[in-house]
Amino acid sequence: MTVDVEEYFQVEAFANQVSVSSWGSFKSRLEGQIDILLEVFEHHDVKATFFTLGWVAKSCPNVIKKIVNQGHELASHGFMHQHITRQSQEEFRQDIQSAKKILEDVSGSAVLGFRAPCFSIRHDNDWAHEEIALAGYHYSSSSYPINHDLYGVPNAPSTPYRLGNGLLEIPVTTCKLMGKTLPAGGGGYFRLLPYAFFKFLLNKSLLSGGPANFYTHPWEFDPEQPRLPGDFKSQFRHNVNQKHAANKLRRLCNDFSWGTMQECYLGGDEYPLFDTWLKAANAKSTN
After folding, report:
1. Other Cβ atoms within 10 Å of 84 Cβ, number
2. How many other CB atoms are found less than 10 A from the CB of residue 11?
């Protein structure tokens, strides 16, 4: 169970309408959103990994303390939630190093995991995994092996694998249905699809073995948040079924057993090895 911790005004869907320089003009709603998630997880005895922005640790340190005080894993989502394709290698290096440092300083705990904003590690930024390992992260969950207009490396493996630098990459969960690869890892698909169908997809993915890697965001559970400017597609993706999301999450927590990324993936299991990210990205996943 994972949560990508960012404010509603920091999402990629509105990046063209909401500039980074304007973030300070928006009222934070993050603490109330996190409280909803923590209540659901506590009620169902779920421990999750919170991939959190360094920006959040700086502006809302109390949110970080709430997360770690309830026994959840804290991981990094970068500092400024910037799509890697818009960063140079040096900018990315500074971003992920700064995020790790402030998250550890505020929480007092080691940060082992990283997730790229918008799963934006692609074929054309193969240096990213090298920088993640050099920054001291033990694992990454930055790839989604599907076709999507904002992200996706459809030929990459659908199950965890190691790269030559020792970094463990843990893809978001997908499943095969009628010859097509479908998303089964959460996000907007979890809000959009009927719960019974999403549960079917998740169960089907589990047949391939190993745990599922599910993700969500705090803003997905806040139907009262301000509406941001954007086209219909962006508005739909962001706002669809937010008022039902908490109840669906409760059902998900009740129907499956969930743990942190560390608990589920760092237990000493052996994983397939790819010397380079480019080899992994072109591996033609069969799951």
Report:
1. 25
2. 21
> Nearest 5 degrees, angle CA 206-CA 172-CA 200?
35
142-179 residues labelled b (16+ CB within 10 A) or e (exposed): bbbbbeeeebbbeebbbbbbbbeeebbbbbbbbbbeee
| pTM of the predicted model over 0.85 | yes
Domains, in order of start, for the chain: 2-281 (3.20.20.370)
Each residue's pLDDT, cut to its tens digit, for the chain (287 residues) gives 999 999 999 998 898 899 999 999 999 999 999 999 999 999 999 999 999 999 999 999 999 999 999 999 999 999 999 989 889 999 999 999 999 999 999 999 999 999 999 998 887 788 999 999 999 999 999 988 887 666 668 888 999 999 999 999 999 999 988 888 888 999 999 999 999 999 999 999 998 778 999 999 999 999 999 999 888 888 998 999 999 999 999 999 999 999 999 999 998 778 999 998 889 888 875 44
Q: Which residue has the tokens 């999507």?
A: 148
Nearest to 125 by CA among 91, 99, 167, 173: 91
Strand 168-169 relative to strand 49-52: parallel, antiparallel, unpaired? unpaired
Q: Is 254 exposed, middle or buried (0-12, 13-18, 19+ CB in 10 A)?
A: exposed
> Strands 168-169, 161-163: parallel, antiparallel or unpaired by DSSP?
antiparallel
- The number of residues making up the chain comes to 287
Q: What is the CA radius of gyration of the chain?
A: 18
Residues 6+ apart with CB under 8 A from 273: 161, 162, 163, 164
H/E run at residue 177: strand 174-177
